[in-house]
Design brief:
The protein is mainly beta and 773 residues long. It has a single domain, classed as Maltoporin, Chain A, CATH 2.40.170.20. It has a 22-stranded antiparallel β-barrel. The relative contact order is 0.15.
């Protein structure tokens, strides 16, 4: 499937925007200031101030010395209207990529190329996700749905001082809408392709004097739409049903104290990610002839169940000169995900013959009995933070605090026999890990002059892990039993940042920032498929450990808001170096994931954000990023796939392995572009509007090594929303489309010997009704 003639996403979206007729009214959108509708002479539309909490204080985004992108208002509502999960943000923010081999349950985030392709339920990621001020450490927690949101913020670059917990690449911060003292709420219902239904609503208001509450709910479902041809006609897979809810109670008896309690839950019943064997044509990265998106050929069971509950309590005491904050968090999640990992249904145990006999439906190239499942039967995370900050001490302000984190996790991995009646379990391995960490931190800013401000911070962190893994039921292909193996790690590190902001004019700020971040040692012990030859006697270990990873990042930029507050933009350039970067090598001679450290990795690039009213009724946003990453380790090698065209040189000291020095990081696109345009026309007491959004990312490598087949092609996806709102926006009806060009791209792979791939979401259409009260 060739995509060489795909139009530029920027040109395509801007062409759509400029073809919209130019009118004389303002597009009503949260984040914009509207003129009086009855005015006979149109007033200029202006952009509202965007506030963020990147420095743990509420500040104008223009004053914060780092690259930040936010998503809120109508743009966020449009993106979530089709029932997609958090991966919908991928490419919608500069330097951001998100993918998953678990589907909706387990997103993997990459910022400026830094991320982790590890699919283990105990994986450590360098991108931190903070939901309502509580860090979500386990990757399953990071898939909690976005609903009834106030804002999404992305902070790029190390955030090791004030956020701290495993954030050398950056932070994604979700903020829920808070309870209000005035009764109100909203309800949304949408229905679309594949029986996709999205129900969302919230109700808020006072309960008593000084007490208010907010209840937010979400229910999403989709019918199965992929036919497993192996079991006869009829759709069997890719459906889901998900419910999430959040109850918040705000107790604010005075201006000096408030306590916000939050209880939330999530339940998901669906299918695991579909692994599609042999969809890649050997010697290319094209689909094989005969590939069909809505068909698959598997003989294993495919299910996914997830249950999550959590709570947090955020308290604030205002003492006048200082304010004390307390953030207490609890999270627990259970998940079970079972799928046909080899992605096929016929086992010939042969290799590609080169004549195409093993290519394309019906798939005959799935060569082994591989149906497995991963589960979290037990998980618990506790966190506590105390933070004391000064309240406008003049030219000098500061904050300092303590942080504590404790996580206990059990991971089960199962294998099942495809050949036996009932497909009984024939393999089991387990992992247990206890992780405790604590930190002390301080940050300050000093107004050197009215135009020049210095900021800096330090954080000391201590991290300890106790890990045990065992294989009590070996598969027939991977004997013997592996007795429990225990490993403990502990390390301490100091993160820091130093930045400066110079007010070039009332509308323009220049800034520079240097920051150090780190990621504590990681442990990997996915033992179920460890081969017999992979023993301590050979000089390797079943359980691998990646040492502490550190990163130094330099960044400089400009932020400006001009044209009578109708245009806001920011430009950043950056360079960073990661020492002892933690990487995951999958597969190879032992068919397990192993952690390695690369001596060095360097990255550099630029990012651009723009938001502007081109006319009083046409609002556009544009984001762009360039990221160049390079692994620098002349001795580092990994084992590549068995049935693909490998481009890396062989390691002369390690038979079967290839050297990856000079390669880019996996899932790290060089180019990301996104654009939106919103245009409105008043009719009666309401408004007709059109909203379009487009996101592009360039090609990516799926693995650490380079191969022709596992280079993912570039991808561009667009959305469209047409609708009418009335009664000052209280009611709205709209039709929408997601992936409206029906882009079909391989976005991830599995490097077995059958060129297995995973594809993006299909095109969907739908209609939505919204009522606010």
């Amino acid at each position: 499937m060739s995509m060489n003639r795909r139009p530029s996403p920027c040109a395509l979206a801007l062409a759509i925007a400029t073809l919209l007729p130019l009118g004389n009214t303002l597009a009503q959108e949260q984040g914009a200031t509207a003129p009086q509708a009855a005015s006979t002479e149109q007033k200029p539309a202006t952009l509202d101030t965007v506030t963020v909490t990147a420095q743990r204080r509420v500040e104008d985004v223009q004053d914060v010395p780092m690259a930040i992108t936010t998503v809120d208002g109508e743009k966020l509502e449009v993106l979530v209207s089709g029932g997609e999960d958090v991966r919908l943000l991928s490419g919608r923010l500069p330097s951001l990529n998100i993918e998953s081999s678990f589907g909706r349950a387990f997103p993997r985030f990459y910022i400026r190329g830094l991320g982790n392709t590890d699919f283990d339920l105990n994986a450590s990621q360098p991108v931190s996700l903070v939901y309502d001020d509580v860090v979500q450490e386990n990757p399953i927690l990071k898939g909690f749905p976005m609903f009834d949101m106030a804002q999404v913020e992305m902070y790029r670059g190390p955030q090791g001082t004030l956020f701290g917990r495993n954030s050398p690449a950056g932070v994604i911060k979700f903020s829920s809408a808070r309870p209000e003292e005035v009764f109100g709420g909203y309800g949304k219902i949408s229905y679309g392709s594949y029986g996709t239904m999205n129900l969302e609503g919230a109700i808020t208001g006072p309960l008593a004097k000084g007490v208010s509450a907010r209840l937010s709910v979400l229910h999403q479902r989709r019918d199965d739409w992929v036919d497993n041809v192996n079991n006869g006609p009829g759709d069997d897979l890719e459906g889901y049903e998900e419910t999430a809810a959040r109850l918040q109670v705000l107790f604010a008896p005075s201006d000096d104290f408030e306590a916000l309690a939050n209880v939330h839950m999530r339940k998901l019943d669906g299918t695991a990610r579909l692994f599609r064997a042999n969809i890649i044509q050997p010697g290319t990265n094209d689909f094989v002839p005969g590939y069909e998106r809505d068909k698959i050929y598997i003989d294993g069971t495919n299910v996914q169940d997830l249950d999550q509950v959590g709570a947090n309590l955020r308290m604030r005491w205002d003492f006048g000169r200082t304010t004390l904050h307390s953030i207490t968090g609890y999270e627990s999640v259970e998940v079970f995900s079972r799928g046909d990992i080899d992605g096929g249904s016929v086992y010939t145990f042969d290799f590609f013959t080169g004549d195409g006999a093993d290519i394309g439906p019906p798939l005959t190239g799935a060569r082994f009995n591989a149906q497995s499942a991963d589960g979290l039967p037990e998980h618990r995370q506790l966190s506590q933070e105390f933070r004391l900050e000064s309240n406008e001490w003049g030219r000098f302000d500061w904050q300092a605090g303590l942080f504590w984190f404790d996580e206990e996790i059990d991971v089960d991995t199962f294998n099942y026999d495809d050949f036996a009646p009932g497909q009984p379990q024939n393999g089991h391995a387990s992992q247990q890990q206890d992780n405790t960490a604590w930190a002390v931190f301080a940050s300050a800013d000093f107004d050197v002059t009215d135009r020049f401000i210095l900021r800096g911070g330090l954080r000391y962190t201590r991290d300890e892990k106790d890990f045990t893994a065992a294989r009590d039921q070996p598969t027939p292909f991977n004997p013997p039993v592996i007795a429990p193996i225990s490993i403990s790690t502990a390390d301490s590190d100091i993160s820091w940042d130093l930045s400066a902001v110079y007010e070039l004019s009332e509308a323009t700020n220049l800034y520079t920032r240097v920051a150090k971040g780190f990621r504590a040692p990681s442990i990997q012990g996915r033992l179920l498929f460890a081969d017999l030859i992979f023993t301590p006697a050979t000089g390797a270990d079943y359980v691998t450990v990646a040492d502490t990873e550190t990163v130094i990042s330099w960044e400089a930029g400009i932020k400006t808001q001009v044209w009578d507050n109708r245009l806001r933009m920011g430009l950043a350039v950056f360079h960073y170096q990661v020492d002892d970067q933690q990487l995951t090598a999958v597969g190879g001679d032992a068919n397990i994931a192993r952690l390695v450290n690369a001596d060095r990795m360097v990255g550099q690039g630029a990012e651009f954000d723009l938001e502007a009213f081109l006319t009083p009724n046409l609002l556009v946003t544009f984001g762009a990023s360039y990221n160049d990453t390079e692994i620098q380790d002349s001795d580092l090698s990994v084992f590549p796939c068995a049935a693909c065209t490998v481009l890396d040189p062989a390691d002369p000291n390690r038979p079967g392995a290839v050297l990856i020095d000079g390669n880019s990081l996996p899932q790290a696109p060089k180019h990301v572009y996104n654009v939106t345009a919103r245009y409105g026309v008043p009719v009666g007491n309401g408004e007709f509007f059109a909203f379009t959004d487009w996101a592009y990312r360039s090609e990516v490598n799926f693995f650490l090594y380079d191969s022709v087949e596992f280079i993912g092609k570039s991808k561009v996806e667009g959305g469209l929303r047409l609708g009418y709102n009335w009664s000052n926006g209280a009611y709205e009806v709209a039709v929408f489309g997601r992936n409206i060009t029906d882009e079909d791209v391989i976005v991830a792979g599995i490097d077995f010997n059958n060129l297995t791939g995973m594809v993006n979401e299909p095109r969907t259409w739908g209609a939505q009704f919204t009522a606010k009260f």
